[in-house]
Amino acid sequence: MQANVLSKNPIAFAGSAAGLEKFFKLEHWRVNVDGREDDRIIWRRGDFVLIVAITPNNEVVLIREYKQAAERVLLCIPAGAVKKDEQPVAAALRELNEETGYAGNEGYCRTFGPFFNAPDKSTERHFVVAVMDVKKAGEAAPEECETILGVQLHPLAEAKEKMTVGLHRMAVAEVAELFR
Fold first, then answer.
1. pLDDT for 74-90, tens place per residue?
2. CATH number of this structure's domain 47-178, picked from the four choices 1.20.950.20, 1.25.40.10, 3.40.50.720, 3.90.79.10
3. Tens digits of per-residue pLDDT, 164-177?
4. In whole angstroms, what separates CA 126 from the centre of its chain?
């Protein structure tokens, strides 16, 4: 099978959405797969981390966060973007502290991935970072765009059953398997 991207062109937003390209990048890709040309709209996204943070008592650190597209508060694991030139573990420790006030040590981390989320529509990939032996180190300081309403601890064996965000549930389940 032969596959080529023939062109990539940014899609500009118009009207009241003009300028939002800095947050949400869409591109029109013209592709050729085995001699057949096709048009695709691709969401340009960077990498992000899903953090399964586990206390010395084998509890998972979860957050209650309002998720706009779901229009509800969901129980989630901390997560966030990997910044340019940042490694997934560093991003995980930074996001964990920002969103929960918990801290971990790089030597107690295990990384899984990268995994593609929607490879037909997005360049986005995620890493799962398990952080063992996390401890409360201060107050959470989430970004302005995050609506985190609280932090909860749940036993590792039960945490995945509390979650309705698919990727988060799978990440907790994957890490829980390590402790069986």
1. 999 999 999 999 999 99
2. 3.90.79.10
3. 888 999 999 989 88
4. 6
